[in-house]
Write a structure and sequence with these properties.
Layout (H helix, E strand, L loop, with lengths): L6 H4 L10 H5 L31 H8 L4 H7 L4 H6 L3 H7 L8 E5 L6 E6 L4 E6 L2 H4 L8 E6 L2 E5 L3 E6 L4 E6 L7 E9 L2 E9 L4 E7 L4 E5 L15 E3 L2 E5 L6 E5 L5 E2 L9 E8 L6 E9 L2 E10 L5 E6 L2 H10 L7 E6 L2 E6 L5 E5 L4 E5 L14 E5 L8
Antiparallel strand pairs: 1-2, 1-24, 2-3, 4-5, 5-6, 6-7, 8-9, 9-10, 10-11, 12-13, 13-14, 14-15, 16-17, 17-18, 18-19, 20-21, 21-22, 22-23
């Protein structure tokens, strides 16, 4: 089991060659004794470690920016100066892209809220992390439930607040509930390069209201006039697409969206495919595509599952059908209780998950193929329900 202190190193892909950390530490201590490097016929001339302290600041930043990210994250603990370089313009320009990191499917379960299973989708390997929030923040001493993830940020629900957390940098922010007592549903975290928003619908005395927290102003906004009746399936969050969060209403199925900027609810003029037994929406989050996953059948029983893409004129264009044997397995594991199904996007994959099943069905968009991701080998057999999967793509500069 890996501890929280080992998490950042485990999130990086190994790139480049290793460096001698001792020689670089002399920047923090100019009086350090020079390090003698053994000579060989092919070795380059040795460099006095004290010369590092005489390099211009811009040149030093430029040199360090070429280090593999994993090595630099280890180096930054040697002195405050190295740590501050993490946010220098040169370093940011080189490592601001998430391509330096592995991406993960994250599994949480209510029976073990301090441990998470991570599946490295690039290496095809499982990892287990022990994440003790109480060791980081006294306010998280009780049980914290993971609600949502977005672009490197994780959001937990505490007893009377939310905790937004960057696992990579170990930075966090506690956001108090907008009111007490406070009950909510359809919680969604939306993170963009300029900040993040927390969205939820809350019960009032006789009506529902929409609450949105904007990290740029660190303030809650409340919007009344809640009109659409949305599904009570809390496993399915809002889907962020072109500045709005999209939801599906219960039968007769339709699409409703909420504009995060204006706070207005709308019903797009789009006709859904026929004979749908359940509907889920997925957005790719970057290329501006919105997908629909639906079970097709009659009398409340899905006989097939298909994938559509929103095309021109707000029409749904069929992309692919789930093979029959895979469809039979999916329908059997959810016992035709489609409220247990939820979907999300992960690095070119459309993932279909079941709250009562430890495996993930995913569609690889580039190859248009379906696959099953087997259960994590470390999961106890007694865990029969409560499986919550999330997409986690570490972002070094995802600010809380």
């Amino acid at each position: 089991m890996e501890s929280l202190s080992e998490v950042p190193n485990a999130l990086f892909q190994m790139k480049g060659q290793r460096i001698r950390a001792n020689s670089l530490r002399s920047q923090a201590n100019p009086n350090a004794q020079p390090i003698t490097i053994s000579k060989s016929p092919t070795s380059p001339p040795e460099m006095d470690a004290g010369l590092w302290s005489k390099l211009p600041q811009e040149l030093l930043e430029r040199i360090l920016s070429f280090l593999p990210l994993k090595n630099f994250m280890s180096l930054r603990s040697t002195c405050k100066h190295f740590k501050s370089l993490l946010f220098s313009p040169t370093f940011i320009s080189k490592h601001s892209s998430s391509s330096s990191f592995s991406s993960f499917l994250l599994l949480s379960h209510p029976q073990c809220h301090n441990h998470f299973a991570f599946y490295d989708s690039a290496l095809g390997a499982w990892r287990n992390f022990a994440l003790s929030l109480s060791a980081l923040l006294p306010c998280a001493a009780g049980q914290a439930s993971l609600l949502s993830t977005s672009n490197g940020l994780l959001c937990f629900s505490l007893s009377n607040s939310f905790l937004v957390f960057n696992l990579l940098t170990k930075s966090s922010r506690v956001i108090e509930f907008p009111a007490y007592p406070f009950t909510f549903e359809l919680f969604s975290l939306v993170s963009t390069p300029v900040g993040y928003s927390l969205f939820m619908v809350s019960f009032g005395s006789c009506t529902k209201s929409t609450f949105v927290y904007d990290s740029k102003v660190q303030f809650w906004r409340k919007f009344n006039g809640f009109d659409p009746i949305l599904s009570d399936n809390y496993h399915q969050q809002g889907v962020y697409y072109e500045g709005s969060l999209y939801f599906v209403t219960p039968e007769p199925f339709s699409v409703a969206c909420f504009d995060l900027e204006s706070g207005k609810w709308e019903r797009p003029n789009t006709e859904l495919p026929r004979e749908l037994m359940f509907v889920r929406l997925v957005s790719d989050g970057g290329d501006g595509k919105l997908y629909l996953i639906g079970g097709v059948g009659r009398n409340g029983i899905s006989r097939s599952m298909k994938l559509w893409e929103l095309g021109e004129g707000m029409n749904w264009v069929e992309v692919e059908s789930l093979p029959e044997m895979m469809c039979r397995k999916l329908m059997s594991v959810c016992f035709h209780n489609y409220e247990h199904l939820y979907c999300f996007w992960h690095r070119g994959f459309i993932c279909v998950c079941c709250y009562t099943w430890p495996e993930v069905l995913y569609f690889k968009v580039s190859r248009r193929t379906w696959h099953w991701l087997p259960k994590c080998p470390s999961l106890p057999d007694k865990w029969s329900c409560g499986f919550r999967w999330f997409s986690f793509v570490p972002e070094l500069y995802a600010s809380v």
